[in-house]
Amino acid sequence: MLDYKLLEALATVIECGGFERAGAALGLSQSAVSQRIKALEIRLGQPVLIRHPHLEPTPAGRRLLNHHQQVRLLERDLRSALPTLEAASPRLRIALNADSLATWWAEAVSDFCRAEGLLLDLVIEDQDVGLKRLRDGDVAACLCASDQPIAGARCVPLGTMVYHPYATPDYIARYFPEGPTEVAFRQAPAIVYGPHDQLQHRFLAQCGYHGAFPHHLCPSSEGFVRLAAGGIGYGMMPRLQVESLVAEGRLASIAPARSLAVPLYWHFWRHSGELLARLTRVLGDIVLR
């Protein structure tokens, strides 16, 4: 029989990124959290955490985290059916990309969260790697660009976000007077969201350029737009996010005939209860562009 206090300690250590912060979240000392993890490992007969060079679950730990995520959601359904059970606001941990959060996500889920009394724990992750969070048991669901479901999970297509390479008119006149050429790509500073962001690379490959390029790193969707609007670089942005800046003439595409379409898929565990099923139906009604 599993001791769910031990599983909760494991999940909290991973979610908080350390024993001390997990202790603060659980109202326990760091030592008490460590003892719960040790007790879980003794009961299981194998480690559940890799502590060095960085904290992450072992394969066994991932299985336990996946189970814990699903139990959380099933318990929420049970509380709805049996109101006399101790009530608690449901919390759903979801990985999604920053551009979705900066554009359509809030409008899509706000009514649902209010109606359900749902608390969101959002993990911002690039759309190309968010699925790893689900596989590791760190989240109950994720938005990502992969259409390949993992074992035990469902994959639902939500639509497509279209990205364009935007910059200010002055920047375009300075670096791209002859359009998107190889010389321009070698010299013009780009803006890249982070080390896992491949949108810029895919756009350059689409233009026939495969070499190195100077770039800023900016792990903030809003900051990304502000840097581009400030004239220090060009970058791939969804039209939905910068419509007003484009309409005002403050941003324009360096290659109007080119764009990148990024499909988004909603992944979630199959046996995670009615809450995720209802959220999935809500997300299925949105239209991305």
Automatic annotation (TrEMBL):
InterPro entries with a match to the protein in the record: ArgP, LTTR, LysR_HTH_N, LysR_subst-bd, WH-like_DNA-bd_sf, WH_DNA-bd_sf
Species of the source: Halomonas nitroreducens
Residue ranges of every copy of the HTH lysR-type domain listed in the record: 2-58
Protein name from the UniProt record: LysR family transcriptional regulator ArgP
Transmembrane annotation, as ranges: none
PANTHER family, per the entry: HTH-TYPE TRANSCRIPTIONAL REGULATOR ARGP, TRANSCRIPTIONAL REGULATOR
Organism domain of life: Bacteria
SUPFAM superfamilies: Periplasmic binding protein-like II (SSF53850), Winged helix' DNA-binding domain (SSF46785)
Keyword terms of this UniProt record: DNA-binding, Transcription, Transcription regulation
Family membership noted in the UniProt record: Belongs to the LysR transcriptional regulatory family.
Pfam families associated with the record: HTH_1, LysR_substrate
GO molecular function ontology, one term from the record: DNA-binding transcription factor activity
